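Open question from group meeting: does this chain pack into something compact, or does most of it stay loose? Before anyone orders reagents, we agreed to write out a predicted structure and look at it together. Recording both the input and the output here so the notebook holds the full record.
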Amino acid sequence: MFLKTAAKNLLLTFEIKKVAILSAMEYRISFIFQVVGMMINNTGFVLIWLIYFARFPSLNGWSFHEMALLLAINSISYGLVWIFAYGAVGLSKSVTKGEIDRFLSMPQNTLWQISVSKTEMSAIGDLFFGLIMLFISNYTSWQNILIFLLVIIFSSIVLYSFIISTQSLAFFLGDFEGTSREFINTILGLTMYPQGIYGGALKLLIMTVIPAYFVAALPIQIIRFHDYTLIIYLALASFVFFAIANLIFKAGLKRYESGNQITLNI
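Structure tokens returned:
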């Protein structure tokens, strides 16, 4: 029953996003500027690391190829969440303004409805950029690509779960929009650098409270060293963080106070 519902929601999600993207493409110039603009923005990170590795060929055993792989994982994970579940990013704002009512009136799962309700078009640029960085990384054997596709799913689930967990704190703390945004910026920032530079309490932090380790570092280890045991750990981590996110959201939803803003979207 669960698998049937999940498959149904997944297919419906793709249909919703297809309609959203086709609608955005009606304004082609604006759509192209958003996508290309994001790719140009991301290119800044590449230039920074090119300059660095031109001066220092290695960073804790990493070369520019590993850094390109990190940027590929980050960009695609970020892009997938922002395209398919951008509604989750604005959850705390919706809670504070009492805008969850219309989702409660729908028959489908509330968290799913909220998540797929919005799409960030510029994130399509992140997907293209991530694919380019993957091929630049030279980790492009068929085996690596298959592993990449698998770990990117788990990485995206961990990132999505972290966003839901932190955004759902608005149910308990009230106006939490600014702080929840900082949490997102924090995990994205922590995944932009080789995880080997983190140690002590910070390393423990990125493996638990802010799971940057599972978003970027562990997927790279799996691809670099073909340690398939680590895939099990990554899958379990994604399941645990997703379960925690659901628990926090459901507990928070019980405390939700309606804003009396039930509307009908046609």
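Observations to bring back to the group:
The chain has a mean pLDDT of 88.
Residues 47 and 53 are 10 Å apart (CA to CA).
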